[in-house]
Amino acid sequence: MSNDFLKQVDRAFTRAAALTDQDPALLEHIKRCKSTYYFTFPLKRDDGRLETIEAWRAEHSHHKLPTKGGIRYSTEVTENEVIALATLMTFKCAIVDVPFGGAKGGIKINRANYSDRELERITRRYTFELKRKNFIGPGIDVPAPDYGTGAREMSWMVDTYNSLSSGELNSLACVTGKPVAQGGIRGRTEATGRGVYFGVREACAVDDDMHEAGLKAGIRGKRVVIQGLGNVGYHAAKYLSEAGAVLVGLAEYNGAIHNPDGIDLTKAIDYFRAHSTLIGYPGANDVENSQDALLLDCDILVPAALENQITSKNAGEIKAKIIAEAANGPTTFQADEILRQRGCIVLPDTYLNAGGVTVSYFEWVKNLSHLRFGRMQKRFSQASQRRLVDSLQNLVDKKFAPEDLAQITRGADEADLVDSGLEETMVDAYAQVRNTWDELRKKHGVDKVDMRDAAFASAINKIAVCYDDLGIFP
């Protein structure tokens, strides 16, 4: 499967590269992974048994440093999968103008089979190996959480890095996605799902595109199916429903539920936590085969699980008009062709799930500056707004209610600034990708180019400019 995934990524790159005017030699250089580190290390289990652990770290592009990408813990991890994910990270960073090259890491384990103490030993040894080979550091390579990892693993990593880097001023910036108390940033947990919402909102705001897809502009009233209720899927569902979308389908790995009149997300999540399955939830009909949820009647389908979920076998049966790729690589190359011919709008993963790396960038900058966002300007902003409101109250001879006054004059804290920066990034990036899409369709034909092509082409051109500025290629 992972070998197929890498082929899918390479095919998408090759297709988009052909739409650019870049030198073929430069395109081949951009496509290839620059560094891959495979290693093994021993683990002493709690019961005294010894086990060999396999692990990888891939740095796809060094056109900008440091490289950036998550670390996943999964039995499905392979070298090709890590390279494919690192490749996507390169283009994802370029699309949203985050100054990183792409990277990815993985450890081949099922975390459910290990105790917390064993997971800590695995994580710390992995960090040690990366440090020893110069595959981690604030200006070298900055890991983050991914499938099977989270803030706890990042705290172990930064602590291990600190112990190996005595006196390094910027050592907290060696990883992102850390707990706030260890240099993390507020808003990182919901960042990817929040970014998915912003991207879908921007797409749904374009009247011409919605008319072409047979839909009305705006999110309100649109029927949504979410596949995968992990961190990304849950937050995407939360913000879409808060904006007025109707959640008609929710899917997890062991089953799905459907209600054309809408599903209460909070109640469904509570049920899932209590029963470890959505099956049997009283507010919806059961869909025993989780994959069948992809075929439910809806306007927006959000695959937020793993790669290769939409394939040539099921793409022709998908009823959604908009495919919002919250996961990495959920749609195969062959499925893309089918969806394009059917007039579906595919919001590609390289753009849509870039919210995580965007806020990771903010965290990295925070760690390098050694200053919490909002600390310098919050009180000044609050005082300025209070003076403005006081002048307005005197002018109209009317007083605001205390609760309204507090809300109006509230200064922005770190979470507000992070959310604002994320929104600005996703809005600007969508405009760039949408403009590139429009230009390429005019040049090559409306039915010959999709938004994935436009996203890759936009990223390729940005990366090419970096190499031109470096003077590496004539």
Walk me through the structure.
The strands form two sheets. The chain has a seven-stranded mixed β-sheet, sandwiched between helices. By secondary structure, the protein is an alpha/beta fold. It has 16 helices and twelve strands. The protein folds into three domains: 35-182, 3-Layer(aba) Sandwich (Rossmann fold); 191-355, NAD(P)-binding Rossmann-like Domain (Rossmann fold, 3-Layer(aba) Sandwich), CATH 3.40.50.720; 378-411, no CATH class.
Give the helices and strands, then pairings.
Blueprint: H1 2-17, H2 24-31, E1 35-44, E2 50-59, E3 67-73, H3 79-95, E4 101-107, H4 116-132, E5 141-145, H5 151-164, H6 191-204, H7 207-212, E6 223-227, H8 231-242, E7 246-252, E8 255-258, H9 265-275, E9 285-287, E10 300-303, E11 322-324, H10 333-341, E12 345-347, H11 349-352, H12 355-369, H13 378-396, H14 402-408, H15 414-444, H16 451-470
Parallel strand pairs: 3-4, 3-5, 6-7, 6-10, 10-11, 11-12
Antiparallel strand pairs: 1-2, 2-4, 7-8, 8-9
Write the CATH fold name of the largest domain: Rossmann fold
Count of domain modules: 3
Roughly what percent helix?
40-55%
Number of helices: 16
* Oligomerization state: single chain
Low-confidence stretches: none
In the CATH hierarchy, what is the superfamily of the largest domain? NAD(P)-binding Rossmann-like Domain
The outline comes out as globular
Q: By helix and strand content, what is the structural category? A: alpha/beta
- Spatial order of the strands in the main sheet? 9-8-7-6-10-11-12
Rg calc: 23 Å
> Mean of residue pLDDT?
93
User: What is the class of the largest domain in the CATH system?
Assistant: Alpha Beta
